[in-house]
Design brief:
By secondary structure, the chain is an alpha/beta fold. It has 2 domains: 140 residues, Rossmann fold; 65 residues, Putative phosphatase, domain 2 (DNA polymerase, domain 1, Orthogonal Bundle), CATH 1.10.150.240. The chain has 9 helices and 8 strands. The protein has a 6-stranded parallel β-sheet, sandwiched between helices. Strands 2-3 form a two-stranded antiparallel sheet. Helix 1 crosses helix 3 and helix 6 packs across helix 7. The longest helix is centred in the first third of the chain and has 15 residues. The chain is globular.
Length: 212
Amino acid sequence: MHDIILFDLDGTLTDPGLGITNSVAYALKRFGIEAECRESLYSFIGPPLKDSFMKYYGFSEEKAMQAIEVYREYFRDKGLYENEVYDGIRELLEKIKDSGRKIVLATSKPEEFSVRILEHFDLIKYFDVVAGASMDEKRNKKGDVIFYAMEKGGFTADKAIMIGDREHDIFGAKENGLPSIGVLYGYGSEDELKSAGADYIAKTVEDVYALL
């Protein structure tokens, strides 16, 4: 049994689709770009923002960092709350806590925003450690965030398992020697998660606990 359960945030605990896409559209507009439709921006949910601005819109690293600053203008006041907890997540976290295991957040979202989201939805009480990206984007890759979470929480890979909805969660777990569960109710496909090497696949929130 794994004693430490690491969770991704966006697409795993909460559905941030509205807030993230509104924030991205707001940033793109500042650079004279109109997004085709909301669905075209879903690819921004999960990976580090800098990578996504560079990959999908051809921004230089400098321009991507400027776009992130604009993104945060909207996100910190509005986008952060345009979000909802997936059905069954509170019950899942309750069961894990009741079983005596520790719960850790490992997200590529800045830690400051992640704490505010967990507090807003009254989920912070379930978490023993909250590990997020740094505001300067120097710690934003999932592998680096998981390593930071392990250091912060004082635990080793053999005690833990990572749960997330995108390939970055699976790759990050592998980098640090953790097994992983890929969830299908978020923003990643079964093909994406299996190709990345997820050890287990959970179709529903209920399946996650069954696998644990």
